[in-house]
Structures are given as C-alpha cells and as structure tokens.
Amino acid sequence: MRFPTIKVGSEEIDEEKALQIVDDAYQHGVNYFDTAHGYHAGLSEPFMGKALKRYPRESFYLATKMPPWDLRTPEDVRNIFESQLQRCQVDYFDFYLFHAQNKEMFKRCVELDVYGYLQKMWEQGKIRYLGFSFHDTPSVLRQILDTYEWDFVQIQLNYLDWELQDAKGQYELLAQRGIPAIIMEPVRGGALADLGEKANAVLKQAAPGRSIASWAIRYAAQLPNVLTVLSGMSNLEQLSDNIGTLSPLEPFSGEEKKALETALDLYRKKDMVPCTGCRYCMDCSFGVDIPKLFGIYNRYVFSRDAGSFREEIAGCIPGELPGSCQKCGACMEHCPQHIDIPGTLDKMRELIGKLA
C-alpha cells in the first residue's frame, strides 16, 4: 500500500522504482508480499501480479483481501475474488483475508456468508490459509474467533499501540488459541521512525548505528507468536534498513528495553494525531484531505516550525482544508485508529487561524 508513486498526491505507482524494491526484497529473502483490492486506488494488485509473475510461484507467499465495504450481494464476493485472481495473475492465494474487520464489517460478512464462499475456495485450492485483518477491541476479536475457524489473524501491533489500542490483549488472545499473528503497522505508518529529538537521542545512545524505525520492527518481530511482520516500504533505503534489522533478528537486551520505555514516555508527551496514513477515511464527501492535513499537523508538532506549517497549508487546495469539514462523521466509521477526526480538524482550523 506504500509503493513509490509517480508524483506526490497520486496513487499511480512508479513501476520502475517499485520493481526495484520487489526484486531487491525477493533477492534478500523476503518471501511474503501483501496487497489488497483497494490499495493504490486498485492499482496494487495488478502491479504485484506483474512483479511476481517473473518468479517461480512456489517461491513466494501472496496475500490479498476481500473488501467488505464493496459488498452488497453474494455475487459481489464471487466477482471480486475472481477478479483478484486475474489481476494478480495467479491460480491461488497463499493467504487470504477478510479486510479491516470490526463489529460492523464482520456483521456484513456474516450476512453475505463471505466465509462460506471463501471456504469453498479453500477446498478448491484457491486459498491456502484463511484469516482476517482486524481493527477493534479484544471483545470483538473474541466474537470473530468464536464464529469461524481461522488459520491466522493480522493485527496492528507496535510498542505504542501495545497499551494505547490494547494490542497486547489482541496478541495474547491469539497466542492462547494457538492462532499465528501477522503484524501490520509495526512502525505506525512511519510515525515511529521519528520520535522527536529527545526520544531519538535516547535510542541512538542505546544502540548506535541502528535506525529509529528498527526498534519498532524488532519489537514486533521478537514476539513468539508472530508469523511475519509487514512493513510498507516506499524506497530501497527503507527496505535495506529493514532487511539489516532482521538479518539476524536480535531480541532486546534489558538495557534496550529500558531505553525504549524512556523514549516512549518522551514521545507520548507530544501532541501527535495517531494517523497512519492508511486513507480508509477517504474520499471525504466534502473534499477534505484528512491524512494530508494530519501529516502537516504532525510535522508541525515535531518541529514547531510555523513557517513550514504555513507554507504547507498554502500549498493545499482550499477545499482540502479543515474549514470544508461538515462534521458528518462518515470518516470516523472507517478509521482504524478511532480518531475524533472532526474534533481534530477543529483544532487544526484553530491552529491555522492562530499561525496565519
């Protein structure tokens, strides 16, 4: 979902750069590739099919997802699944997921018997492992686990969300049931790649030469019930850093654990919006570019550079700005981070007025 793009603000994949990333990953032992029906405005699956077609099919694992928000009838389930096989140029998926499950999305999947259809695809060999990605509370997770049998579950887990969104409770529930966890957002959409000057200094002193992002990757990867860790890498530098971090994986020492606790305490004191840039909140009916605005806001919180903040706001289309928000709340229904988006946009509108 984070391939390099042709230009800023576009979802069109820069295929030359993206192919370099896929090839370099494959050549260094990365064998799990995650895509989804809606990533890059529908362009991710066809690109992944093109990129991976050049390698022996049994040499990699391909994962994609059924989008519940696009489902209205049982026929939609069949049509989307068949189109995904064609788009990815494969005869089967290694890992197939119900995408972004929460209480409401799971209810829709049950009503349309999505599991029944995908179970048939499993029986036909078109799916090898069936699971779901999850964005809700441990109680909802327990309900989903009790309803059907699952091979794996993909959860958002990182050292910030371990307590903030009770990733600990979700992880432990899966571990108790012997269901492997696949980790998404280990670096929280890049937010944990830069914790701010003071927190960064603590980690750099504890582990000279390691990147700040590497701490987040290691935190997730060292947990015993983790099958693999997903990282959306937009350039070769990020890929190289992640490969180095896990070659081999070195669990935290006691001193490193203390350093991370100190850094996290410093980070929590910053007034950050916990947006990962997933864009599930988009498109806004009124034109507000929510992830873009939250990115601008978070950069200001880090730097307190009012000039850069004003410059970035001036570069926005007027309709993208917080003033266009009508507080309809539709965006909040899809936000995996449960952010009070209208309320946060209000704060940003006040900040723009203050710094204008």
Automatic annotation (TrEMBL):
State the coiled-coil residue ranges: none
The UniProt entry, under InterPro entries, shows: 4Fe4S_Fe-S-bd, 4Fe4S_Fe_S_CS, AKR2_Oxidoreductase, Helical_ferredxn, NAD(P)_OxRdtase_dom_sf, NADP_OxRdtase_dom
PROSITE patterns on file:
4FE4S_FER_1 (PS00198), 4FE4S_FER_2 (PS51379)
Which GO-annotated molecular functions does the record name?
iron-sulfur cluster binding; metal ion binding
* Keywords in alphabetical order: Iron, Iron-sulfur, Metal-binding
Residues forming the 4Fe-4S ferredoxin-type domain are 316-344
Gene3D superfamilies the UniProt entry points to: Alpha-helical ferredoxin, NADP-dependent oxidoreductase domain
| Any Pfam family matching the protein | Fer4_9
This protein is called what?
Answer: Aldo/keto reductase
What species does this protein belong to? Fumia xinanensis
